């Protein structure tokens, strides 16, 4: 069941990506299974799960493209910068499309803190999945 | 007189707001390398065109919240600045406006994250505060950034592509330059409560204005001095950017043969005679005429909005863009 949901979410996402970018998403299945398990534990309703999973996958991919090392002599540097920027903008757009505006708002400080940690060269940046979990649990409590 | 004075825009207030956004962020350690890099980038200045466009757009609404407009204006400049930081890395450009670019000063990885911080901070500030027009939900950051990226992808795709069509050139220029100017006007108007059709009209004005801006930039690669440009004249041609003057010059078979020889390994001194020949051809005049026709289309929209006092500001913008020398 979860396998089908993951495939559906990724197919839907690939359709959102402009072909000129030539971006292909290949997130690790195990990471997405883990994310789904966390979302379910946080009481996320079934119809919301595919969209939420896609939003998570987009942000995780955007952050991964900009992870260290980033060196001037890396022939992939240009693509990594561009792909990361594009996927980040798509994450915002897709979150709004899925009516996940409260999630976007509550995640924004976490995303920013990840960038701050990276800019300061700090080890152990905040975990993205933990950030999702905190926000989703808060939303559950508020219901 | 500077454009901001003609438009009655307090740039010092916008600069202060940009710094405030950084300094009042409790997550950025005071005096850290990150804070210094951000403040230095803000202090390096720029024309601040996009904040001016947000402000002018807001004058078409009937309930402008001054603080919110200044915040949105600062956010527009944050998005623009973040894209310039990343552009410099993509182009491996060691200079920005004649000064060392940020990645030259702090290294490529940290420069990427400074740009990312600026984008993330804007989302944090604006999420929840942005007005949602009738049907679709939009985010200033997402709307602006996605198109900027597409423009970059198109530029990469067509580097040294001397078969580039005029339509592809215009599409790339809309994505890379015109769109952010257009959404600055549009979101400024929307934030001040302007009706949706009017906001869309201002978008159309901004798109023509932005396209003229890009064509003017293309022309400056041939007409401005190295000092004015902050980089050697002819850099666009050397870097494989097929700009509007180059597209027109390619229609001359003799010039086309020379242009097609320009590739990634061509040296700056090799293209000097070619630059002179393009200057002496009619290509620059034709590009100038195209630039003027875009400005005229922008003026038509401005005149159609004469019921609004702020339409005068739109005309001031077209005058400025028409006379821009660098």
Automatic annotation (TrEMBL), chain A:
Protein name (database record): Uncharacterized protein
Organism name: Saccharibacillus alkalitolerans
Lineage: Bacteria, Bacillati, Bacillota, Bacilli, Bacillales
From TrEMBL, chain B:
Top-level taxon of the source organism: Bacteria
Record-linked Gene3D superfamilies: Farnesyl Diphosphate Synthase
SUPFAM superfamilies in the record: Terpenoid synthases (SSF48576)
Cofactor section: Mg(2+)
Keywords: Magnesium, Metal-binding, Transferase
Family matches, as Pfam families: polyprenyl_synt
Similarity comment: Belongs to the FPP/GGPP synthase family.
Matching PANTHER family: ALL TRANS-POLYPRENYL-DIPHOSPHATE SYNTHASE PDSS1, GERANYLGERANYL PYROPHOSPHATE SYNTHASE
Protein name stated in the entry: Polyprenyl synthetase family protein
């Amino acid at each position: 069941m979860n396998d089908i949901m993951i495939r559906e979410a990724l197919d839907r996402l690939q359709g959102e990506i402009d072909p000129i970018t030539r971006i292909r998403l290949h997130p690790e299945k195990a990471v997405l299974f883990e994310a789904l398990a966390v979302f379910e534990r946080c009481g996320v309703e079934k119809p919301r799960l595919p969209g939420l999973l896609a939003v998570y996958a987009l942000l995780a991919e955007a952050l991964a493209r900009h992870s260290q090392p980033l060196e001037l002599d890396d022939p992939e540097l240009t693509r990594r910068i561009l792909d990361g920027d594009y996927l980040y903008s798509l994450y915002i757009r897709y979150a709004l499309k899925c009516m996940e505006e409260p999630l976007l708002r509550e995640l924004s400080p976490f995303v920013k803190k990840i960038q701050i940690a990276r800019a300061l060269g700090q080890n152990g940046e905040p975990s993205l999945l933990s950030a999702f979990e905190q926000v989703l649990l808060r939303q559950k409590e508020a219901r | 007189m500077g454009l901001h004075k003609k438009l009655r825009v307090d740039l010092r207030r916008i600069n202060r707001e940009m710094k405030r956004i950084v300094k009042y962020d409790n997550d950025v350690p005071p005096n850290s390398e990150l804070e210094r890099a951000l403040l230095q980038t803000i202090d390096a200045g720029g024309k601040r065109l996009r904040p001016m466009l947000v402000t002018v757009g807001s004058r078409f609404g009937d309930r402008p919240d001054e603080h919110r407009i200044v915040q949105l204006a600062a956010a527009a400049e944050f998005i623009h600045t973040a894209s310039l930081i990343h552009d410099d890395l993509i182009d491996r450009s060691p200079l920005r406006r004649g000064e060392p670019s940020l990645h030259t000063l702090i290294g490529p990885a940290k420069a990427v994250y400074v740009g990312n911080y600026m984008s993330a901070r804007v989302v944090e500030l604006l999420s929840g505060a942005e007005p949602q027009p009738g049907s679709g939900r939009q985010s200033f950051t997402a709307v602006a950034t996605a198109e900027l990226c597409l423009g970059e992808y198109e530029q990469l795709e067509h580097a040294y592509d001397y078969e580039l069509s005029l339509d592809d050139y215009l599409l790339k220029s809309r994505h890379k330059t015109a769109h952010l100017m257009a959404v600055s006007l549009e979101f400024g108007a929307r934030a001040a409560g302007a009706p949706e059709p009017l906001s869309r009209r201002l978008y159309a004005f901004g798109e023509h204005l932005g396209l003229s801006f890009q064509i003017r930039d293309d022309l400056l690669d041939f007409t401005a001095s190295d000092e004015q440009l902050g980089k050697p004249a002819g850099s666009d041609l050397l870097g494989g950017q097929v700009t509007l003057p180059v597209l027109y010059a390619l229609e001359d078979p003799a010039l086309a043969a020379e242009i097609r020889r320009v590739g990634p390994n061509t040296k700056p001194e090799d293209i000097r005679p070619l630059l002179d020949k393009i200057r002496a051809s009619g290509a620059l005049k034709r590009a100038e005429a195209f630039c003027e026709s875009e400005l005229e289309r922008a003026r038509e929209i401005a005149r159609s909005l004469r019921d609004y006092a702020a339409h005068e500001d739109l005309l001031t913008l077209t005058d400025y863009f028409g006379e821009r020398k660098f």
